[in-house]
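#dry-run=false #mode=assembly
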Amino acid sequence: MSRETVVKTHPLDPLLRADRLPHIWCPGCGLGSIMSCLSNAIASSAIPPEKHVIVSGIGCTGRVAGYMKLDSFHTTHGRALPFATGLKMANPELEVTVVSGDGDLFAIGGNHFIHAARRNIDLNVICVNNFNYGMTGGQAGPTTPVGSRTTTTPQGAKEPTFNLPLLASTLGAVYVARWTSLHVRQLEKAMSRVMQKDGFAFIEVLSPCPIGFGKSNDIGDGLAEMSMYRENGVIPIEPDLTQAAIDMKHDSSIMLGNFVDIERPALGVRQ
Amino acid sequence: MTTATAAANVLTGQHFMNGDLACAEGALAAGCTFFAGYPITPSTEIAERLARRLPEIGGTYIQMEDELASMACILGASWTGVKSMTATSGPGFTLMMENIGLGMMTETPCVVVDVQRGGPSTGLPTLVSQADVMQAKWGSHGDYEPIAYAPSSPQEMFDYTIKAFNAAELYRLPVFVLADETVGHMTERVTIPEPAELVLADRRRPIAPPDDGWLPYGVGDDLVPAMVRAGDGYAIHVTGLTHDERGYPVVDAQVHERMVRRISRKIQIHAPQICEYEKIMTDDANVVVIAYGATARAARSAVMAAREKGIRAGMLRLITVWPFPAGVIKELANVVRRFVVAEINLGQVSREVERYTRRPVNWINHAGGTMITPEAILRGIMQVKP
Amino acid sequence: MSYTSYRRPIDLNDVRVPRGQVYVIPERCKGCRFCIEFCPEDVLVESDGMNAKGYHFPVVAEGKEDACVNCRFCRLVCPEFAIYTEEIR
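#status=ok
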């Protein structure tokens, strides 16, 4: 048979602002993989593309909105959720997906996260966790594992971190999952599932940030971190989310899976 | 919207209500169907009224976790095509500044009501102030030209809330109603007209169907882009980053210059239509009192008292504090000898007036907590001999 | 619930293994190697030549011309939307 065929366009280009590619993300970053899963999930969704809306905050992940050829809103740092709340409450026909980073959603936007989850507003929330602030050059954040070296923790991070699936489930999110930018099949399925859910649905996606985090923390480049996800990823049959914290050490497991899938009265639901 | 619902949003008739309630009714009459807010004295009555009234007309009331969220929420709502609003006081207005900047940058119509109280910080929660004038102008970082109305009565709270919505829709920006505790809590007669008598504006929508050629931030002579609704298939990108006519982020000083100039110019070129003020007995005046909001009521009494004493006093009442009516002050400066500016802050508008005249400006003010009395303003006027 | 309760062996005689054709957009590649490293059939290797940005993009390895099973993993994992496969029927 033939070898590879060189082409100029990709089947997902209609969902992308292809004129803006290549994107700004570094080689080895997992954000593009996650955007690929999201694009595939939207392409296979029963909801037409014009009703899909992407809302992002600020940071590397915040740039996802700008690359998707949908109604897309790149808002202020931390405020993607309240902005999305306005969109969804004013027009429940929209399928609103928030894609933002760990710092955006859980540091500067942490208060909005807990309240959006409490309200159970019908949003899909995808948090790309790369364990640091990548856009600003690799500073520590609320998910930076203890001991990690970042530009603002030169002696090693000392603060305890958030366990995001546990936090989201405790707040009453109707769907909680954690995957990585390597677990693309499971991630695509989870994204498809949250688009069917009524209520606050949350997916944490671990993603390499080789420049900001991996290289200074004995992980290496993006490929090495992806391999670490493959080696250390564990999908428990009966997950105990209290054990879901991540330390990104080579000898520690990373708990993955679809953890929560429940029903609860929600706001902003399509009638 | 059906006729029955349309009628339900306009409480036609004579009412005895306070300024906060009149503001809420003005919003409903203007077609507002979305309110997001956070309780704060002395604006809370606006939220309370809308929490009851909006569900009656099929609208949405949502109480957010703070003012950062409230402001972000009404911007999001606005992009679905609804008229949205929030109401707050100085401390909340400060928190809103972040997303007011986003609203200015993304040109998102909405209305922000600030019922001013004493500051800085928590200050005097239940007592009057007018010290947010410059916050309204410069509160968010970067350059932009705001529109701010300063109503002087419950009736004007109704009327100018409608005008604020109209300006927001016509010029695509967050528009401020810069009320104060006195006007917000003052109860007077408010006349709400028949729905047909209301003059309402709606944002311009693109005529062209969705295709790759339409420019979300392309403009004509009026410098105001047409606005789509999320879900209409235009696949727009909206960002707080400096963006080009496509809405795409661009790191380029020239694009930035063009964009920031335009969002300022679109207000400056319409300033003659936007600016509102009231001149009282200024024709023969040699001293003119400048006041706005609740203070204008005391100023009017002082001017009348001065006239009774034979002093040729007049008054300029600012209705829009932004855009600032510089032209009328320059005109008056040609004929009057002196200005008296009365305001409940330490000289925010006084300083602005001084930028446009070489005539002496007498600052009559205090930091907040009480009204400025007509007597205090009269003493200011009396420094000028008739 | 245990996985064993619904796991069933498959009969290779009944299963038709799909065949895939690899499509590449070389100019989009940033050389992360995700597709090469994680292809379950080891179909891909780095190109000898480089794209305009200096990255070695993926190509089908010699001897692997018939090896792609159209599993779509490369399409999903590629961060650059630079590779996909289609089934050959």
